[in-house]
Every structure is written in structure tokens, then in C-alpha cells.
Amino acid sequence: MNYGERSYQVLIQRIQGRDKFVKNTYSVKKRSFEIAISRTDVTWELLDCKGSNMEEFFNVIDW
Q: d(Cα 16, Cα 58) in Å, to the nearest integer?
């Protein structure tokens, strides 16, 4: 998952901006490795749709 078409950057580009069932608003304190979710929005109409919020994971670990 780190090379060419299989890199995580390609994955992120493909899923960013798409509507998501769950979207979190969060902050990351890198010094203390703390993640605080201040808000979680759920769009119930998207429950049966394919989607991902995996870019949130990569945003958090991309230090």
C-alpha cells in the first residue's frame, strides 16, 4: 500500500470530499498523543451507501 496506484495518498485522494455516513470533528495534540473528538455528525441517509472516513485516520497518524 505504499507504491504507485496502491499508495495511501491515492486512496485518500479518491475518498476525500465524498459524502460520509459518519464525520468527526477532532483535534490532535501531538505532544501528548491526545485525540479529542468534539463533534460526530451522522448522515442516516448514507447508511446503505459505500463510503469511508479513512482519511481521518491518516490525518491523525500523518505526523
A: 11
CB-based contact 51:19 (threshold 8 Å): yes
Q: Which residue's C-alpha cell is 479513512? A: 54
| Element spanning 57, H or E | helix 54-61
Residue 36 and residue 27 in contact, taking contact as beta carbons nearer than 8 Å: yes
pLDDT at 28 over 90: no
C-alpha cell at 27: 483535534
Instruction: Note whether 57 and 28 are within 8 A (CB).
Output: no
Angle between helical axes of 54-61 and 8-15 (0-180°, round to 10): 130
φ, ψ of residue 53 to 5 degrees: the values are -115, 30
- For the question of whether the overall pTM of this predicted structure is more than 0.85, the answer is no
